[in-house]
Amino acid sequence: MKYTNILVSVKQKIALVTINRPKKLNALNKQTLTELHWAFTALLTDDAVRVIVLTGSGEKAFVAGADISEFHTFSSQQGYDLAKEGQELVFNFLEQSTKPVIAAINGYALGGGLELAMSCHIRVASDHAKMGLPETTLGLIPGYGGTQRLPQLVGKGMAHEMILTAGMIDANRALEIGLVNHVTSADQLLKRSFSIAEKIIKNSPNALAKSIAAMHAGFSEGVDGYKAEMEAFAACFDSQDFKTGTKAFMSKKTPKF
Ligand code: CAA
Asked: What does the pLDDT read at residue 31?
């Protein structure tokens, strides 16, 4: 597949997806969202890939938001379609991915950019990264899941403050409030993200997928997360990975999944 706005590479079971519009601070236009959907669809069915790291090109931005130049003349119906398509194709798709996705936040993560990072399962930020949901300065609200995922991650009070003030926070503050898992220097960002990925790839791919699904279930309206966990737990017993993992444990070996 030939992409124009993203770069994709795979090395030792870890895929690196880089959003590559640095002159526009990697803003998410329609083409970029479409390419992200294609790339993730391909990576999720590629047995050579176990974990995906997502980052932005250049030193300045992870993603500075949805591309304002594409929607500034939209009507409410077009706005609805923009949010729906983006959420379905990329944001919800990533969150419900069967493989773990790590956001390596290398600079500004604003609006749709922070929403993208929040759709990932783990976030690592470089120490110069700045994060925020500035949509209210545009007369908008977050449309790619920000009003839902930010309170899930940092609690309602901090989420209200961030969305209502439209302010940016730095990486250390993001760490303090639980918005990111780790902060590192810019030159160590990918190394740190890959070292987390390397720990993950040692584990059962089936169990990783089921863990993500069970955790997601608890945040889904009308779904009993505990029941979803029981069912996912039970389904693991029928898997080859369960046989491999428990057999290795019983014979004091390291499992190879
Ligand atoms: N959309 C489109 N273009 C963008 C962009 C965005 N979100 N963010 C930056 N750019 C473009 C700028 O227009 C500029 O392009 P030109 O050189 O062609 O003029 C280029 O990227 C560089 O940006 P700046 O010159 O503005 O860089 P700066 O260092 O002065 O400022 C910034 C950096 C503070 C991040 C500033 O670019 C900014 O405020 N960007 C917009 C942030 C924002 O409001 N994001 C939310 C978007 S709405 C959204 O995401 C809705 C949703 O939830 C679905």
From this structure: 98
Please tell me the distance from the alpha carbon of residue 77 to that of residue 81, in angstroms, as a whole number: 6
The alpha carbon of 189 and the centre of ligand 1 are apart by a number of angstroms equal to 23
Question: Phi and psi for 105 in degrees, rounded to 5?
Answer: -90, 105
User: What residue ranges do the domains of the chain occupy?
Assistant: 6-200, 205-250
Q: Tell me if the pTM is above 0.70.
A: yes
CB 142 within 8 A of CB 122: no
**Architecture of the structural domain at 6-200:** Alpha-Beta Complex (3.90)
Q: Can you say how many angstroms the Cα of residue 116 is from the centroid of all Cα atoms in its chain?
A: 6
Q: How many residues does the chain have?
A: 257
Q: Choose which residue among 23, 25, 80, 92 to substitute to test ligand 1 binding: the one with the highest number of ligand atoms within 8 A of its C-beta.
A: 25
Instruction: Give the residue numbers annotated as catalytic, written as ranges.
Output: 115, 135
pLDDT recorded at residue 1: 75
Q: Is 110 in the pocket of ligand 1 (CB under 6 A)?
A: yes
Chain segment 184-198, per-residue pLDDT in tens: 999 999 999 999 999
- Residues 194, 182: Cα–Cα separation, whole Å: 13
Note the pLDDT tens digit of each residue in 145-165. 999 999 999 999 999 999 999
Tell whether ligand 1 has an atom less than 6 A from the beta carbon of residue 144: yes
